[in-house]
Amino acid sequence: MKELSQKIKIGLELAEKSMLEEKALRGQDVIVCDSDDIIRRIPAKEVIRNNPIFQ
Predict the structure, then answer these.
(1) Cα dist from 34 to 4, 30, 31, 42, whole Å
(2) Burial class of residue 34, CB neighbours in 10 A (0-12, 13-18, 19+)
(3) Smallest Cα–Cα separation from 48: which of 37, 30, 9?
(4) Over its length of 55 residues, how does the chain's per-residue pLDDT go in tens digits?
(5) Counting beta carbons within 10 angstroms of the beta carbon of residue 44, is it exposed (0 to 12), middle (13 to 18) or buried (19 or more)?
(6) Whole-prediction pTM value?
(7) Cβ–Cβ contacts within 10 Å for residue 24, how many?
(8) Do residues 55 and 45 make contact, with C-beta atoms less than 8 angstroms apart?
(9) DSSP structure class, residue 34
(10) What are the φ/ψ torsions at residue 35 (nearest 5 degrees)?
């Protein structure tokens, strides 16, 4: 079960990275909700730049 969970986590991270890269190429924004429960539009390039997972 632990192995399956890890594979799903890695797959989701890859899918998110791919989506962000595609949006960044098109100059699009993503919608995010921070810990303060405020919904914001942020350029995909900024999300990639500020998140070490996507480096």
Answers:
(1) 28, 12, 10, 11
(2) exposed
(3) 30
(4) 999 999 999 999 999 999 999 999 999 999 999 888 999 999 999 999 998 888 7
(5) buried
(6) 0.80
(7) 19
(8) no
(9) -
(10) -65, -15
Q: Is there a contact between 31 and 40 (Cβ–Cβ < 8 Å)?
A: yes
- Predicted local confidence at residue 53, as pLDDT: 83
Give every CB contact of residue 31 below 8 A, 6+ residues apart in sequence. 39, 40, 41
Amino acid identity, position 52:
P
- Residue 35 is given by DSSP the state T
Helix %, strand %, coil % for the chain, to 5?
60, 20, 20
